[in-house]
């Protein structure tokens, strides 16, 4: 037999179709990225992603199905050609015993009537068709584009006849895959129907789950929008899936902490206002009690000097001027003490010990019976640490004098594996109903914590009074060795 005609055009069309199929998912992915850039809702994004996934799976499945169908059609056609060739060979094998060769060939061609894949044709030497078989009719309504997609170029085999049939022509077998394509079309419709039903059910199920799952997010978003409103934020019911219940629990905890922080901030704001008013009142009292009389005395002495000049009593001017200078010096000292309370930077320039001594002198001027016990080591501290230590000592001493009415205050500081600071008094101690920290104590803790240290305020275990204990790292390498708690009772210095 002659060889079959190679279907090169069919392979070329197949490759182009596969390239277009593989390009489709990338185009859809690009469109999905544009959708994300436009900030679609989470529900639309999830549904779009699932649709994209289903389309990609459908495209890959269609490509594989098409490839398998092409291979199946080609296999069926090759098998049909092979079977037809064997039938022809068996029919003409006993050509010497044939009385009417033409009639024999006519019957041979008629044997192929009703075949599903092969059309047999007897072609005369002049190229005219002498006899031709009829294919089985296609029972299904197959679209024409599907035939063009799968058929390609038909395979043709021309079989030479034995010598007994010389002059009668050539027997030609031609494949026709329409019936095979009709079978494939029935399978494809079934597969597409199943896939369509699967996609519809999948999208319906995903949409239902998303609606039920994402609805709580709308509630959570609405609750977030009401945070900070005077009417307050209602607590969310901690129900539903475990993941959302955890989110609700965290949201409720955040709302509770926010309310506590708002109450604490309001309380601290009120305390800060009271402290500022107390400080202003103290400064006004100091100016009135200490500076006011000396200003009045200076005014009186200045008037007296003016009268001495008018009377030409020049011998009395010198003593009056000395009195004025003494009054001015006294006022300068008091102003310096007030400035030291407001901003101790100038005092710290002369050293922390000097600043502590100036503070003690300030309080002893007002309360001469108050006793101070000082045990401060000479520790090399930077400016920031020195100011924070001074502020802690100043705040602790001020609290003790104002609220505890102590007879003695002890201040101790030592530096070994860290800077240990203790301020204790023998006053009234902490209030029994003290439930929250005041602004001053909170401020001291924040200052100490900013340097990686710890601060504790507690009542003394022996006797009455309060003890303020603090620890600070002397250098960054000590921060890892910071004690989790201060030594019980702090440093005992009496």
Q: What is the CA-atom radius of gyration, in angstroms?
A: 53 Å
Helix count equals 11
Number of strands: 9
Q: Estimate percent helicity.
A: 55-70%
Distance between the termini: 124 Å
Rough shape?
A: rod-shaped
Query: Can you list the strand order of the major beta sheet?
Result: 5-6-7-9-8
Strand content: 5-15%
Low-pLDDT regions: 1-11, 24-38, 476-494
Please state the structural category: alpha+beta
Q: What is the succession of H and E elements?
A: HHHEEHEEHHHHHEHEEHEE
Largest sheet report: 5 strands, mixed
Mean pLDDT: 76
Structure report:
There is one protein chain. The protein has about 500 residues and is of the alpha+beta class. The chain has helices spanning about 10-35, 40-90, 100-110, 145-150, 180-225, 240-310, 315-340, 345-350, 350-365, 385-405, 440-450; strands spanning about 120-125, 130, 155-160, 170-175, 370-375, 410-415, 420-425, 455-460, 465-470. It is built from 11 helices and 9 strands.
Secondary structure elements and their pairing?
Layout: H1 8-37, H2 42-91, H3 101-110, E1 118-123, E2 129-132, H4 144-150, E3 156-159, E4 170-175, H5 178-225, H6 242-311, H7 317-342, H8 345-348, H9 352-366, E5 371-376, H10 383-404, E6 408-415, E7 419-425, H11 439-450, E8 454-459, E9 466-472
Parallel strand pairs: 5-6
Antiparallel strand pairs: 1-2, 1-4, 3-4, 6-7, 7-9, 8-9
